[in-house]
Write a structure and sequence with these properties.
With 386 residues, this protein is of the alpha/beta class. It has one domain. It is built from 10 helices and 16 strands. Strands 7-1-8-9-10-15 form a 6-stranded mixed sheet, sandwiched between helices. A 3-stranded antiparallel sheet has the order 3-2-6, covered by helices on one side. Helix 4 packs across helix 5. The termini are far apart. Keywords: Acyltransferase, Transferase. One of its GO terms (biological process) is lipid metabolic process. It comes from Artemisia annua (Sweet wormwood).
Length: 386
């Protein structure tokens, strides 16, 4: 991935840092450090604890501080621990939060690259001549929340303005990862005024981890602040369907015993608008419709039988409702039900309508570069016992 072709600027001026167009990196789901800030009676911050990502006491701190419930009145997911707030650190021009997700001493010493997120790309760009705070910036956000929530949109706009101004009004190249593409698409829909007010060239590179796609977009003469237009996200069927049914495992094998468990993550995701917003789009003309295949074991009249059931993009909602009807957690000696959340589903449906109506500025060219060496999860099969 090295080489001057990765350095976004004029070919004749690549050796001059001042002639490099600024780059803004946007993380995807799970790609931002989250801190829990505890407050005193007077509203002062007393302690700050990194709750995502951490290796030591990961699952314990996660359940205590990150588990949340969705508030349909505000549209935000709010942590059950009402004595603290979840925040994303803003250090190092936004790069700290998306660099090494557990930046503790032993992780760096042992070079545990499982938690290295944008680290290699940041090093590569610095090697190309980019400077933090001048031509290189990052944007991490609370990935529990909706991709169109005000806090995320305002934060992205502010960071883009900072990058644009720091580089002397030069174009911004925005590199988004996975769900970061959905975040940028929401921004384009809600802030179209930003994208049509000037004649500056800008580019967007989006790496979709969930679907193993690497998308490259180039736009010109469209935007004053260089807002990246990401891929038209139509959902991540295999991963997101499975997340709502069984959770999400970021680390496999022996290392998973030192990390947040799949079950703990599942209880969080059931209350996260961002997950519902990545369900497969039922209005998209899929080459092969996403589906969940369930084999049900039944016993009738002493005979065991197996029945196969198929659930498409719309019918899968009924399966989610059935699977989560008895889902619950114990928190502070209280039992809290966590069924399939219809309020979030309706919010996500509005997000989907907004994304379906997004129109990109004229003059945009799309280049889709995708890997073929790894299979993308598509169908999810389950065996359900009586």
């Amino acid at each position: 991935m090295g080489g001057k072709w990765w350095c976004f600027g004029n070919d004749d001026d690549d050796d001059e840092v001042s002639d490099l167009d600024p780059v803004l990196l946007v993380s995807g789901i799970g790609g931002s450090i989250l801190n829990s800030e505890s407050k005193s009676w007077f509203g002062l911050i007393t302690t700050t604890t990194r709750v995502w990502v951490r290796i030591l006491l990961a699952d314990l701190e996660f359940r205590k501080r990150v588990w949340s419930l969705y508030n349909p009145q505000t549209g935000y997911t709010e942590e059950l621990d009402d004595s603290s707030d979840i925040v994303v650190p803003d250090d190092d021009y936004g790069l700290y939060a998306i660099d090494i997700l557990d930046p503790s001493f032993w992780i760096k010493l042992l070079h545990i690259t499982d938690v290295y997120h944008f680290h290699d790309m940041i090093d590569m760009l610095i090697g190309c001549g980019y400077k933090k705070g001048t031509t290189l910036f990052g944007y991490g956000y609370d990935f529990r929340q909706s991709n169109r929530i005000d806090k995320a949109m305002d934060g992205l706009k502010e960071r883009l303005e900072t990058a644009y101004e720091a580089a002397g009004g030069r174009k911004v190249n925005l590199i988004s990862h996975s769900m970061g593409g959905l975040l940028v698409s929401c921004f384009i829909s809600l802030h179209s005024d930003v994208c049509h007010t000037s004649n500056d060239l800008f580019s967007t590179y989006s790496y979709d981890y969930m679907n193993l796609n690497f998308i490259l977009h180039e736009e010109n003469d469209m935007c004053r602040l260089a807002i990246g237009v990401c891929q038209m996200v139509k959902g991540a069927p295999g991963c997101i369907n499975d997340s709502l049914l069984t959770g999400l495992q970021f680390v496999e094998g022996l290392e998973s015993y030192f990390f947040v468990s799949r079950w703990s993550m599942h209880q969080l995701l059931v209350e996260c608008p961002s997950i519902y917003e990545m369900l497969p789009n039922p209005e998209f003309n899929w080459k092969k419709q996403p589906e969940i295949i369930v084999w049900r074991n039944r016993s009738e009249n002493g005979q065991d039988t197996v029945k196969m059931e198929r659930y498409g993009t719309s019918g899968s909602v009924g399966l989610f409702v059935e699977a989560l009807k008895d889902n619950e957690i114990e928190y502070n000696k209280k039992t809290i039900p966590l069924p399939f959340n219809y309020d979030i589903y309706q919010w996500a449906a509005t997000t989907r309508k907004m994304l379906n109506s997004v129109r990109l500025p004229e003059g945009i060219s799309f280049y889709n570069i995708y890997g073929t060496s790894l299979e993308t999860p598509f169908d999810v099969w389950y065996v359900v016992k009586p």
